[in-house]
Amino acid sequence: MFAVVKIAGQQFKVENGQTLYVPKVSGNAGDKVEFSEVLLVDTDGSLSVGAAVKAVVKAEIIAQVQGDKVIAFKMKRRKGFRKKHGHRTHHTKIKINEIA
What is the chain's alpha carbon radius of gyration, rounded to the nearest angstrom? Predict the structure, then answer.
């Protein structure tokens, strides 16, 4: 059984017991969250798509983490202009408990 769920504007294919990194979801480690925007559900070969889907994905927040550092470097040759800055995006590690 799997589902396609929309979390923070992105679509993820999820299954029971799966852990994945999603864009930052508010909450602390150990909190339970529900995602009600389910786009597709497959239960033993029968698909439910669109408005026919009445499912909810229940998950648990494992940790709030940061991604790898991304460096943005700008330079103009022969002018002495160099600018460097970086950032780390925030992610949430969640574990899918149930697709109901």
Answer: 19
How confident is the model over 84-95, as pLDDT tens digits?
999 999 999 999
98, 62, 93, 90: CA torsion to nearest 10: 140
Please answer whether residues 57 and 5 qualify as being in contact, where contact means their C-beta atoms are separated by less than 8 angstroms: yes
Is the pTM higher than 0.70? The answer reads yes
Maximum alpha-carbon separation in the chain: 64
Q: How far apart are CA 18 and CA 11, in angstroms?
A: 15
Q: Where are the beta strands (DSSP E) in the chain?
A: 2-7, 10-15, 19-23, 32-35, 38-43, 46-49, 57-66, 70-76, 81-87, 90-99
